[in-house]
Prior knowledge:
Elements: H1 6-16, E1 33-36, E2 39-43, H2 56-69, H3 77-81, H4 84-97, E3 101-105, H5 108-119, E4 125-129, H6 134-143, E5 146-150, H7 155-165, E6 172-177, H8 189-198, E7 202-206, H9 221-224, E8 233-237, E9 247-251, H10 253-262, H11 264-268, H12 274-289, H13 292-310, E10 323-328, H14 330-342, E11 345-346, E12 349-350, E13 360-364, H15 372-388
Parallel strand pairs: 2-11, 4-5, 4-6, 6-7, 7-8
Antiparallel strand pairs: 1-2, 3-9, 8-9, 10-13, 12-13
Helix pairs in contact: 2-12, 4-12, 5-6, 13-15
The protein binds pyridoxal-5'-phosphate.
Pyridoxal-5'-phosphate (PLP) binds next to helix 5.
Amino acid sequence: MGKMDWINDELKLLKESGRYVPIRVLESSQGAWVKIDGKKMLNLCSNNYLGLANHPEVKKAMADAIQYYGVGAGAVRSIAGTMDIHIKLEEKIAEFKHMENSLVYQGGLLANLGTIPALVNKDDVIFSEELNHASIIDGVRLSSAKRVVFSHLSAEDLEKQLKQERKSGKKALIVTDGVFSMDGDIAPLPEISELGEKYDSMVYVDDAHGEGVLGDHGRGIVDHFNLVNKVDIEMGTFSKAIGVMGGFVAGSNELIDYLKQKARPFLFSSALNPGEVAAILKSIEIMERDDSLLKKLWNNADRLKTGLKNLGFNTGHSKTPITPVIIGEERNAVEFSKTLYDEGIFASPIVYPTVAKGTARIRLMPSAVHSEGDIKFAIDKFESIGKKMKLI
Ligand SMILES: *Cc1c(COP(=O)(O)O)cnc(C)c1O
């Protein structure tokens, strides 16, 4: 037995339990259609909600910035890696989010891993939503704070937990996803922010799937609920609707000043490269300038959901463009996705443990760059496969 043999055993186990995820390789840019295995496929998998990942103006902004600044930031931000363009982006995000200030990270995951442990420690308590994203869960673990989980979308359960557990920490942090990526449902943020006031607890929302999707011009969940100044920490990503890479946290001047002294991904990992920063700035500028992409996204989502519902599919209770088609049995979802793939549609199955047993689904991500014809193509294929498999 070699000392690395355990890896093969682990891989075998994953494969036997159907939890091994094969990874498809794209041979094209992101977009409504992508090339996989040499074949053109309708893409209903990506988080490129507005099509900005391959937008000509965004690409040009990146190329121009590379000509001027080069490709790398050269160091961690606090040593020699902060360029004027990083500051410009942080000012732009603050303005876009109606927050005082913001801090850019190299990714959304890093924003959560870096910020949460800077806010609370072993003397404190975190109230964490049951279905929070993995990067929040890991940020919570890194903080060593006491963790109390509250039920999905339940302000009532959160209050119950706060009553019981708030006293167990000096400081308290309530943390929740804004939009939940597997179901497309939305956190009751107005109630959560009130509870934050009532129980002297900081409120932190992860808006990864809200940016570019919710609120005026896609400003996100805080704008959607008119909660400016009522949420303490708004975290987000540049890798989804904004189409590029990176993450951020927005909040008060003091919060940002403090994170620059404490957040480990800021202090110990090199800065986002200038090309990415310029591309993000351009994406936000496009979103501010015109909301036609946002409208197109929602039109496509409405058309897709209505079409599937009319056929008799269970599309859950999504309140956003995220469209789960709940199939039920894990095996059926995997087979459905495979048949879709053979018929030219790229749409991944989502199974246990990512979602609860018996709620396996195909998750569809419509975007602003899909045409009406693309959406109809998808609905027609769902109809023929659904009938063949006797699911509708
Ligand atoms: C995608 C996602 C992240 C991670 O963002 P990246 O920028 O891709 O690292 C964090 N939180 C939530 C809720 C997400 O959906």
